[in-house]
Design a protein that fits this description.
Structural class: alpha+beta
Strand order of the largest sheet: 1-2-6-5-4-3
Number of strands: 6
Number of helices: 3
Amino acid sequence: MFELVGKIRTIRYCELPPEGFDPDDWQPPSWHQTTQGLSAQKRKRSWASILVKQKMFVDGKQLKAPDHFNTEGILPDDKHFYAIKAGKVRAYGWFSTRMKGVFFVSHFVLKDGEKLAPQDTTHVIRNWRSIEKIEE
């Protein structure tokens, strides 16, 4: 599992690198889909920005809300999921109830408007169910 370990918490990605792939050179498929319309320079800058924010987050630094971290939607257990933000790019995820100190990143999206897209909520909930394995 691809993860970023910090002083306070760990970020784990729901999207995994292929077998035998160097995790340091890997970017999630949803990242590539999200940023395919951006220039190479903007893509590189956005990736660096999201990694810096994630590193700050795992080390326990407060990400300024709503500029860099925002509550986005509700999970089936009535807890929220969130977005780590870098410009228009969002990394949607949630704090695990099964694994203390772990924040799961479901997927990345390029968000043009203010509203959360229903398909993103569906995607997060599908990943949440597969990871948290909570029966309803």
